[in-house]
Amino acid sequence: MVSGTNDKNTPAIVSLAAGGIAGGVEGFLSYPLEFAKTRVQLRQEKGVPTPRNPFTVVTQVYQKEGIRACYKGCGPLVLGSVGKDGVRFLFFDQIKEAFADPETGSLTPVRNLLAGMTAGIAASVTAVTPSERIKTALIDDARHDKRFRSGWHATTTIWKEDGIVGLYRGLAGSTLKQASATAFRMGTYNVLKDFERKNEIKQDTLINFANGSVAGVVTTLTTQPFDVIKTRSQTAVGASTAEATKSILLDYGIKGLWKGTTMRLGRTVFSGGILFTSYEAAVKLIMPLYGGHGNFLY
To answer: What coarse category fits the chief subcellular location reported for this protein (predicted)?
Structure first.
């Protein structure tokens, strides 16, 4: 598990599988809020007010384009979330052992952040950047050209036009976001779990959900600029991290780096609770299937 006294008994394959399941569940259930946040962060027409309520955005899109439009780009994001969170939980559960105090086995808040940061970098390179690029391109394309028929069509089109570089457009922004987001999300959750364990606070679904939600709030408020830059660089046309940053500052000024904060906050509070609750539940379901045979992975 992410934290607690039984971490060393959790096989690596269980961390990977449970993380993947949790990521897929969280990605699908919270996607409309992610869709709304991405729409707001993309360049808007001058003079057109930007809604701050994510449900307003979703409602407007639903009324004009139907329910399918609200799930545009959902497939790539869910697949990416399976890989992203599988890798994040796998790396965090394994890496944090290297950062743990050799005598007590516990992690200080700083070491928690370092372990999370390392896991975030690994997730960005292996899964997040390509899936986020496709998701963002699909949402952006649906507003204008409508040339992408599906996630697969968008992937093959970008590959033909720009190769692997096109799929990894926004790598710097994504990596900065994932490194910081995973550091704060996993780190905060782990600190809360350690505190509860030391104070003998009974763990249940409600506590896990609350811990995940708090971790989501901390993550959003500290990493929003990276998310905005990443989104702008991964539009259908694409842009470098420097170009994306410049365009945001020219369009909205410094406050533009926090554009979509309300949207993302609504999602991360919800998704953080779902993610960690699903992960803890998945570990409990998967562990009996492996018995004691998963330890060869260490």
So the answer is: mitochondrion
Q: Distance between CA 206 and CA 195 in Å, rounded?
A: 16
Q: Is residue 296 part of a domain?
A: no
Q: Is the pTM of this model over 0.85?
A: no
What's the rounded Cα separation, in Å, for the pair 69 and 142? 8
Domain count, the chain: 1
Could you tell me the two tokens for 229? 């830059």
Nearest C-alpha neighbor of 86 from the set 12, 21, 14, 16: 16
Assess if residue 19 is contained within a domain: yes
Burial letters 145-167, b for 16+ CB under 10 A, else e: eeebeebeebbebbeeeeeeebb
297 within some domain: no
The residue to which tokens 């509860």 are assigned: 196
Q: How far apart are CA 220 and CA 266, in angstroms?
A: 10
Do 50 and 44 touch, CB atoms closer than 8 A? yes
- Which has the closest alpha carbon to 265: 231, 211, 215? 215
Q: How many other C-beta atoms can be found within 10 angstroms of the C-beta atom of residue 196?
A: 16
Could you tell me the two tokens for 278?
């699903």
Helices 31-41, 261-290: axis angle to 10 degrees equals 140
Q: What is the pLDDT of residues 23-73, one digit of tens each?
A: 999 999 988 888 887 777 775 655 566 666 777 888 888 888 888 888 888
- Domain of 113, CATH number, reads 1.50.40.10
Q: Identify whether 298 is part of a domain.
A: no
Instruction: Report how far residue 59's alpha carbon sits from residue 169's, in angstroms, rounded to the nearest whole number.
Output: 30
pLDDT recorded at residue 157: 92
Alpha carbons 247 and 25: distance in angstroms, whole number = 34
Q: Which domain holds residue 39?
A: 7-291
